[in-house]
Amino acid sequence: xTKVGDFSKPFRSRFGYHILKVTDKRPAKGKYxxxxxxxxxxxxxxxxxxxxxxxxxxxxxxxxxxxEDFAKLAEEYSEDRRTAVDGGLIGWVSIGGRxxxxxxxxxxxxxxxxxxxxxxxTNYGFHVIKLLDKEEIKDFDEIKNDLKGLISNxxxxxxxxxAIVTTLKNEYNAKTNDENVKEFYNIxxxxxxxxxxxxxxxxxxxxxxxxxxxxxxxxxxxxxxxxKFNRKQSPQDIKIFVDKAFNNFISKMxxxxxxxxxxDKYIDFKYLxxxxxxxxxxxxxxxxxxxxKAIIDTAGLDNFYQKNKNDYMWDYxxxxxxxxxxxxxxxxxxxKLFNKNKNEDFILSKLNKxxxxxxxxxxxxxxxxxxxxxxxxxxxxxxxxxxxGLKKIVANNEDNTITIINVHAPEVKTLNEAKGIxxxxxxxYLEKEWIKTxxxxxxIVVHKDVLKTLVN
Length: 456
Hints:
The chain is of the alpha+beta class.
């Protein structure tokens, strides 16, 4: 399952290859049948008009809550005349349907049949919505075939598929035996629409009904195809049902055959599929043995870090703090305490005892050169050299500030401090080790004579 914000793996449809990004998810809630009463406020309406509309819809809302007939209120007051004549009936609403999101949210916020929503404001006006009926979401297995039908029978899909099938019929010289197909007008009964159709075991179903290319499809093949329609559904004329099913059967058989021979028929496609297959395989293997392993294998990562920690060093770093003093008196006291190497917390607590803003930390940075502007400016201003342990305390009487600079010697970064680059290096290490293992396991032969012909 693809999570919100993630990309799906590449997948194939009838239209090509796709990658999807999930931007949001909402739980399916089935279908709700609703009616509404509406006061329209067109875009650009004055605030006075909007207020009148809101007052009116609130008045109608209170009448509905008091028990007055909602349908009659809609007929009398609703400005959506298309639905007003039918008691405000909108019909069935589902998540992600034709309604705007805020309207859907209000609809699916109703719990019980007969519930009436508070006044809802949208870009179109003000609404009061009543829940008339609910149809809970069905089990997936129950609607699976219907969903497949909806997806596979869109106008665009059908038009494209029909054009391909027509071309292939001509290419493969497809022939049908209509007399053998017509026997199904009697073989198939109304029981197929109730899921209880059974074929007489004594029937011989070996007559051909479709031939194309080097393929022959018999009545038995068609029976097997029809069995997937042996379920509860709306009854229809048997002849129409059989003819429609047979046309779909022809398309399915020809397309299945075409799909089976695609790679032999189209060499470029064969190489493309192989490249795609090998690429996905390589991606999954590399993820298993390199990328994900480097993240999951914390013990291995730590061991790699311990062996190579000297490759991850901080350069000289500079701890710069600028303190702002309330006045010259505080400046003098603070400078004296800092020069005595008193703890910062102690100094702040002591000088801010009566006034919490007497001494505050104005700016603070800890970084190498060329990383933080404050650090670079103070190094230059006070001519700070790369001297480990150097401490510079500068009191400025003009703006009552104290600047303290501590120089830290180069040292090894902790695993957490350099985890990104260490993980990347560990991945490179794992990849090299994996390739080394594969080279030892599988013998590689380079045919230099063939290679030279490619170069020349």
